[in-house]
């Protein structure tokens, strides 16, 4: 896929925005990336989700490293979440082809709405 300079800059800014969201809030950079992968790159649902995960892995590793160096992370407290996340990631990765893209997009939208409402109402 050939990308012109203007599009490349826009994509780099999107990545930066995603990194900022991820760094400030400890996650959530995919909320920025996923819609833009679909809108700007015109990726279909499955490919956009898979690309988003591939981008988020190193981004989350960088954010975790920064948190570890600056404020400390309790690996003991994080271990059960990491194990559960690993299992969930493997299961969802294997099942991704079976889920219709429209359902994935709607589930993602509901998750964002739920998270936003929960944050506002707390």
Question: What do these coordinates show?
Answer:
This protein is an all-alpha fold and 122 residues long. It has one domain (5-121). Helices cover 82% and strands 0% of the residues. The chain is built from 5 helices and no strands. It has helices at 5-25, 29-39, 45-70, 75-95, 101-121. The N and C termini lie far apart (44 Å).
**Helix and strand element order:** HHHHH
Radius of gyration: 16 Å
Sheet of most strands: none
Morphology call: globular
Mean pLDDT metric: 84
Beginning-to-end CA distance, first to last residue: 44 Å
Number of helices: 5
How many structural domains does the protein architecture include? 1
Beta-strand level of the residues, as a percent range?
under 5%
- Helical residue percent band: over 70%
Structural class: mainly alpha
What's the total count of β strands?
0
Question: Spans of 5+ residues with little confidence (pLDDT < 50)?
Answer: none
Overview features:
single chain, 122 residues, mainly alpha, 5 helices, 0% strand, globular
Topology summary:
Layout: H1 5-25, H2 29-39, H3 45-70, H4 75-95, H5 101-121
Helix pairs in contact: 1-2, 2-3
In short:
By secondary structure, the chain is mostly helical. The chain has five helices and no strands. The chain is 82% helix and 0% strand.
């Amino acid at each position: 896929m050939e990308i012109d300079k203007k599009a490349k800059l826009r994509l780099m800014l999107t990545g930066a925005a995603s990194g900022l969201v991820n760094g400030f809030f400890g996650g959530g950079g995919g909320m920025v990336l996923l819609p833009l992968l679909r809108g700007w790159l015109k990726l279909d649902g499955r490919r956009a989700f898979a690309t988003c995960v591939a981008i988020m892995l190193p981004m989350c590793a960088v954010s975790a490293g920064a948190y570890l160096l600056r404020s400390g992370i309790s690996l003991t407290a994080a271990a059960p979440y990491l194990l559960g996340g690993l299992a969930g990631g493997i299961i969802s990765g294997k099942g991704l082809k079976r889920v219709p893209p429209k359902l994935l997009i709607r589930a993602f939208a509901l998750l964002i709405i739920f998270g936003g409402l929960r944050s506002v109402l707390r």
